[in-house]
Amino acid sequence: MNNKILRTIKDVSVIGFLLLFPHFVPLPFYSYAVVCFLFIWFLLRNEGNTFQDIGLSGNGFTGKAVLIGIASALFWLGFMQLAYIPFIKHFFVVPDYTEYNFIRKSISNLLMVIAAALLIGGFYEEVVFRGYIQNLLEKRFFRKFAVLWSIIITSVLFGLYHWQQDIFGIVSAVLGGLFWSILYKKFNNNLWITIVSHAIFDTISLILIYIDKFGNWY
């Protein structure tokens, strides 16, 4: 096999590892994220790159980036709560969302899961999906319409990564992936914007679950 085929096999294997390892290796309390984060660091370093090359630059973490992240999170929260959830409940029989029921009436559980949402949902998932996988797909897998295809495929993979949720949760994750992937490209691959946006969206969603208002604004 030539070098191009070997590199493609390697890249597909890397993506497969990042998607499957967190679900199938029973490491305690999100510690899989440390393994995967170090794995990405090693891959970047092996190619002469750093996290700065995927948008995790110190210069990118500005007040403007934070404000854009917060505003985009509120926009996406409004879309999900006032458009997506009412739409699917109108046309489909949607089972109750129970994955985070354990945080209801437990402030300690809520705070613990919010901390995880900030580090895992916000920081880790954005580094993996927007920062690494999307860039990898854009630079290695496509010649024509590379940005478009990398956004679409990354978003589908992001949705499938949430397979433990029902089909409506997977669809919402695909849509969220599209939103954050487009946001990432629109603001010149500044990963801090999508990290803040994703983290704030997850945090407010968890608070809504805690007060039993998630999807009940209509």
TrEMBL record:
It comes from Chryseobacterium wanjuense. GO terms for molecular function: endopeptidase activity. Residues 109-203 form the CAAX prenyl protease 2/Lysostaphin resistance protein A-like domain. Pfam families: Rce1-like (PF02517). The chain crosses the membrane at residues 20-44, 65-87, 107-129, 141-161, 167-184, 191-211. GO terms for biological process: CAAX-box protein maturation; proteolysis. Keywords: Hydrolase, Membrane, Protease, Transmembrane, Transmembrane helix. This is CAAX protease self-immunity. InterPro entries: Rce1/LyrA-like_dom.
